[in-house]
Design brief:
The structure holds 2 protein chains of 2 kinds. Chain A is mainly α. Chain A has 18 helices and 4 strands. Chain B has 3 domains: about 30 residues; about 90 residues; about 220 residues, Cupredoxins -  blue copper proteins (Immunoglobulin-like), CATH 2.60.40.420. In chain B, about 40% of the residues lie in helices and about 15% in strands. In chain B, β5 and β6 form a beta hairpin. The chains are: A mainly alpha, B alpha+beta.
Amino acid sequence: MANVETKPVVHEEDLLIEEYGYDDHFHEHHHGDKYQSNFITTYIFSQDHKMIAKQFLITGMFWAIVGAAMSLIFRLQLGFPEENMAWLKPLLGKWITVNEAGIGSLAPEFYYALVTMHGTILVFFVLTAGLSGTFANFLIPLQIGARDMASPFLNMLSYWFFFLSGLIMFLSLFLNTGPFSGGWTAYPPLSALPQASSGSGAGMTLWLLSLVFFVVSVLLGGINYITTILNLRTKGMSMWRMPLTIWALFVTAILGLLSFPVLVSAFLLVMFDRGLGTSFFLSEIFIGGQALDHVGGSPVLYQHLFWFLGHPEVYIIILPAMGLVSEVLSVHSRKPIFGYKAMVYSILAIGFLSFIVWAHHMFMSGVNPFISNFFVIFTLIIAVPSAVKVFNWIATLYGGNVRFTAASLFAIGFVSMFISGGLTGIFLGNSAIDIQLHDTYFVVAHFHIVMGVAAFFGMFAGIYNWFPKMFGRFMNETLGKIHFWGTIIGAYAVFWPMHYLGMAGVPRRYYRFDSFAAFGQFDAMNQFITIAAIVTFGFQVLFVINFFYSIWKGRKMTSRNPWGATTLEWTTPLEPGHGNWPGKLPTVQRWAYDYGKDGKEFIPQIQPLEEGEKEGH
Amino acid sequence: MTALLATICLILISIIVVQIGKVTELAGKIRGEEEVQEQSNKRHANYSLIFMVLFLAATLVSAWYYKDSMLWYGPNESASEHGSSLDSIFNITLFFTGLVFIITQILLFYFAWKYRGQRGRKALYMPHDNRLEVIWTVIPAIVMTFLVVGGLDAWNEVMADVDPNEEYIEIEGTGYQFAWHLRYPGPDGKLGTRDYRLVSGTNPLGQDWTDPKNLDDFHPSEIYLPVGKKVRVRITARDVLHNFYLPHFRVKMDAVPGMPTYFVFTPKTTTEEYRRKLGALNLNGEPMYPEWHEPVDPSDPESPKKFEAFDFELACAELCGEGHYAMRRVVKIVSEGEYQDWLSKQQPYYESTIKGTDDDPYKEEAAPESEVESQPEEAEPETPQTTETTE
């Protein structure tokens, strides 16, 4: 691929590492490699960060397919509510009700269950675990020059708690009363009262249990990532020499560590309200013909706790994608990332601000309108570091020698999506406009583009770029590019029209639109969106085929550094074993973005500065 | 059988796809990788440019196409006074973000195209430029300040509660699974007290009948309001969260069990005026908004036209369970005269349903003839009683 591949540089890294490297006596202590001695310890209960990363990735892909398939079913309902859905009966069973005429339709309870599961799965299992689980595990030790994570055992537990969490959620799909159906935000009283909705019984119990295990997984992972980044950086890898991927993953882990426990506290209180008769979130409720005893609680309190996680969560999703994109754009433009320090500061600023904007999800929830003033101000301040990032990405392309690969295309696509989705955030963050747009399709369009599609684009860029390092083979480029064009066109076709629905006032989470004259006038648009969603899903199948085919049959990687990148992971052997570097650990001599400096295509981080050479930034 | 066919199709497609991939890879080997990469750079750089043009064109054309259906454009002006200030902030924001959107999307794809990889070309070494970075930090900050100030100014005005001394109409909307129950204060202008423990089949809102303010409250099935009068909606929920949403009036507020909320607004367009606007004709006598002249029932061309059947609507905008999508009530804005007319026809709920029954605290004192009167003639003005029977 790269021009460099033909040059005989294969051993140059080894020489540099041998000369400047640091001998930590790692291999003297690990005779026979107890971590990877048999099938089970290699592939299942592995403690090697690279294997755990692959486990997160493949599990995440499984959930992405499940979550996306669910969205297709409810899109069919929204686009073609009159069509016969009896053909789905073998899959969905009693949730398809067939009338005398033989026309099957999706039960509204199950429509809401699908919407809820789609949100939960995509937000938590795919874009949190699948994205940062994969790339934090894979890239942190490799890019900072560590043998593995600080605690490989906790790291393994992190995956298996995620697996357990997924297993419980999966089982809940088969409950007689259906999975939880009160929306991924699970606002009480709907989520707290089994009488309020069939999914709020056993479905909600399993949902809560699953997510508590999920939080355990995130915390075990997060504490590991932070510790590893702070303590296990190789010699010379100062914080200001870390690639932006590591900065992003670092801040992501901190956000997770500080916000997820608050979610668990909210869940615990919901459990108490459900099981122990407490009234944290319940007050003055008459339901099912009965006045409940609960008085004094506040459903709004739950929303505060939930969004105290919920808002950082969207940055937990998007920051790793930003980090991956920064790295991929720089490598494939053959230019240093523009404004490295500004990029780091903007990550830090976004991370900090993400903790003081949560109530912008609650402008219309009955909180004191005065409080909203602060949240509006902090929310719109986030636009500034976000704008800086966008301009810096664009400036990175300027004057480059851009190599169009599937990875770089997805990185460019990410920036396009982030612009489109980020700008609509300026509408929603302004409470005055949010009065009208809150809980309409405008919101659906906004967050799907800015943190759904964009995060997926970051993830795809990362997968195409690091696949050779993961599996020793390339993914097929042609299929990757077809995948890109199909996905960017498809994703815009799905989500762009939703802005218009929102601007017409159409609320989200509606099973059908024809009960209202104002909302029922967009049949053609809803059909278009559904068809676009099906086609876009087809392009993701292409990706899945390409992925698994390439693991075993892809073009083999023949040189260590196919993209001509400066970072440490490309100095490891073609298929790095446990401990990543066979001999000494590399030491770092310069920042991560010396591309095109002094007429050289790129200068690896392990290359010492020349006499009189000044460091890049 | 279909499943089998579909599976076979899927397998065939996968094989074809994999073969395409293989062939291009082989071609790459034959022609040399650098050559292939350069060609690919050129091709996809061109695609980027084409995509950018088509994408931007599609956004503009589609926005134009849907302008008459969106609440900000065409005939769909806000039907409330405060709504206009929100709409103008929306449009100012749209102007700025639209500008940034077009400029950044163009630069992004243009740079990708312009600086596509070519053999022998060297990339610029440009790690940062403080002046540029300051510029593009300061400009967004200024624009944001502008938008925040405008937004908050409107927000605080819109969300302010009524002054107890001013004149306003107070009405109440209560969400329950799955409908809205409406209550008007009656001649005394005051809503009576409620206690959720008193809720029953005959007392859907849990009104306390010992409170005299309750005795004249009535429960209509539609919201009727006079144009130009300030309205305070008291918003409550009986079971789970709901949201009182009047799209045409830019009104939206959660209904929270145990915590009444409110929204204050002033209708400025009557239903009739709004219909006329939707059905307006241009100078040539053609409809200005043809989509509003289509028949309501597409299969029956004789059915009324959409603009003639138009009504303001109340919806729920907070997920409340499986019937969330159908909590509709009609909202009618009328002239003061029509409103008074309508008011005079309303019968207090107490009179129609409670008086003289076992729930009536004044039963003993009540004169016997009121017993007869208490038999409701027209059962109850609102329908959804069937869903809530007391056990």
